């Protein structure tokens, strides 16, 4: 009896492929990529408005990060820089990581309940859709975090 894997097709052979229209996803129930890219672009524009005093450490096609380059003490550790916000374009959602929620409890108290309910975990906001109300709450959260960072001398 011979090796059953010896006659298998090479990896680059033609396999039946599923046709996926541009701007859509092959996953059932997944959101159109164009919707997610519009969300990513809107939030990237909002983050870019905070560039001075924050610095964009990662401005990539699928990720945007804002950092404070001032040396700060967070908890018991001294850090040369601290992340203010990170926006990631994932396959199923746009994720906004917002570390001020972790290190500054007053940020959590200043956020609207509708926005807090959308957070997945402690500081990750997963967005599959975005209406005006949610965008307004996100902008308010970013400006609240900005004011707290300025007040505490973190930027």
Describe this structure in words.
The protein has 155 residues and is of the alpha+beta class. It has one domain. 32% of the residues lie in helices and 23% in strands. It has 5 helices and 8 strands. A hairpin with a 2-residue loop joins strand 3 and strand 4. The longest helix is centred in the C-terminal third of the chain and has 20 residues, at 132-151. The N and C termini lie far apart (71 Å). Mean pLDDT is 77; it is low at 1-33.
Number of domains: 1
Mean pLDDT: 77
Stretches where pLDDT is under 50 for at least 5 consecutive residues are 1-33
Order of helices and strands: HEEEEEEHHHEEH
* Estimated radius of gyration: 21 Å
Query: What portion of the residues fall into strands of 2 or more residues?
Result: 15-25%
Number of strands: 8
Distance between the termini: 71 Å
Give the proportion of residues in helices. Answer: 25-40%
Number of helices: 5
Structural class: alpha+beta
